[in-house]
Amino acid sequence: MDLYDYNTVKRILGKYGFTFSKALGQNFLIDPDVCPQMADSLCADKSTGVLEVGPGIGVLTKELCGVAGRVVSLELDKRLLPVLDETLAEFDNVEILNADVMKIDLNALIDEKLGDCKAVKVCANLPYYITSPVIMTLLESRLPIDEIVVMVQKEAGERLCAQVGSRLAGAVTVAVNYYADSEILFDVLRDCFMPSPKVDSVVIRLKIRKEQKFKVKDEKRFFTVVKCAFSQRRKTALNSISNTMGISKDKVTAVFNGLGLDLNIRAEKLTMEDFINISENI
Ligand code: SAM
Predict the structure, then answer these.
(1) Cβ 87 under 6 angstroms from ligand 1
(2) Partner residues linked to 150 by β-bridges
(3) To which H or E segment does residue 136 belong?
(4) Distance (Å, rounded) from C-alpha 155 to C-alpha 187?
(5) Cα–Cα distance for residue pair 278/255, rounded to 1 Å
(6) Are 141 and 179 in contact (CB under 8 A)?
(7) What value does the mean pLDDT take over residues 155-177?
(8) What is the pLDDT of residues 113-127, one digit of tens each?
(9) What is the DSSP letter of 187?
(10) Ligand 1 center to residue 29 CA distance, Å?
(11) Percent of the chain with pLDDT over 90
(12) How large is the greatest C-alpha to C-alpha distance in the chain, in angstroms?
């Protein structure tokens, strides 16, 4: 079944009376090049397990089944289950679970379903409304995965993969950089989807580091400082940290002075080391 063919997709969706849900970020890929390119960039083989989020009608899932040993795919929308039964009927190495990626215990899931795979990777065309929360959950849960290849909105991708200390950086950039090396792999235009969204997308790769690159004594405090520093982007990092962490301006000024930091510096100009030093001295 050619899931890149507009009429085939229309026919199969019609057969099951499926209508797109905007709230669930349902924009399905119909471009014939994007999914194979995503699957190829995983460098998977038959010893690889892949966790997919949001299979839709299974267009990317099919490609993943072709390159990996086993695929486990989480779909929140029950209405897609009979569709997937039909579109993925030819594959015996895929399991579709009706689950919410934000609620399921991913560590237990990977252990149970993909625990015997030599490597586990995550691949998805992520629903836009939960891009950052999903990526943060995948990173913070310290899952036994070695990389994440996902499609996200172009702007979100540029922020996720920005350099810490650059204009595009945000709290999520620092968080990604803490756990992984990131890169933008390729652009995907809006007309590659059905229905077509209002924005373009990019496919990004987050390669999770086996060894921790940054040594942080108190991770909770570190991430609180990062979030607070970026929470008032128009203000200086000093004011933003003081206002949102409820620490007096004098105390934060003393910390900045002690570290030799410009008192007017904004969060996007701070480096990883600056954030670590601030969090350890505040
Ligand atoms: N992979 C398909 C493709 O590329 O055509 C569909 C991608 S579509 C952008 C996002 C998919 O994620 C939809 O199928 C949607 O129902 C599903 N989804 C939305 N929220 C979800 C959640 N919290 N957990 C699991 N799947 C979810």
Answers:
(1) no
(2) 124, 204
(3) helix 131-140
(4) 11
(5) 7
(6) no
(7) 97
(8) 999 999 999 999 999
(9) E
(10) 11
(11) 99
(12) 67
**Tokens standing for residue 159:** 């922020």
How many other CB atoms sit within 10 Å of the CB of residue 258?
Answer: 11
Give Cα separations from 257 to 59, 60, 211, 238 (angstroms): 55, 52, 32, 11
Q: Is 213 left (phi over 0), alpha (psi -120 to 50) or beta?
A: alpha
What is d(CA 124, CA 149) in angstroms, rounded to the nearest whole number? 7
> Could you tell me the distance, in angstroms and rounded to a whole number, from the CA of residue 28 to the centre of ligand 1?
9
Query: In a 10 Å sphere around its CB, with 0-12 CB exposed, 13-18 middle and 19+ buried, how is residue 237 labelled?
Result: buried
Residue that has been written with the tokens 């995965």 in this structure: 145
**What is each CA distance from 64 to 6, 40, 149, 160, in whole angstroms?**
21, 9, 12, 24
| 130-162 CB burial, b ≥16 within 10 A, e <16 | bbbebbbebbeeebbbbbbbbbbbbebbebbbb
Residue owning the nearest CA to atom 10 of ligand 1: 127
| R_g (Cα) of the chain, nearest Å | 21
Average pLDDT over residues 72-95: 98
Structure tokens at 160: 């996720």
Q: Is the CB of 26 under 6 A from ligand 1?
A: yes
**Does the Cβ of 157 fall within 6 Å of ligand 1?**
no
Walk across the sheet containing 48-53 and list its strands.
Answer: 94-98, 70-75, 48-53, 119-125, 147-153, 201-208, 180-188
41 close to 150: Cβ distance less than 8 angstroms: no
Residue 1 has pLDDT above 90, yes or no: no
What would the mean pLDDT of 9-37 be, rounded to a whole number?
96
Average pLDDT, the chain: 97
3-state SS assignment for residue 135: helix
272 CB-contact burial (10 Å; exposed 0-12 / middle 13-18 / buried 19+): middle
Q: Using a 6 Å cutoff on CB, does residue 29 contact ligand 1? A: yes
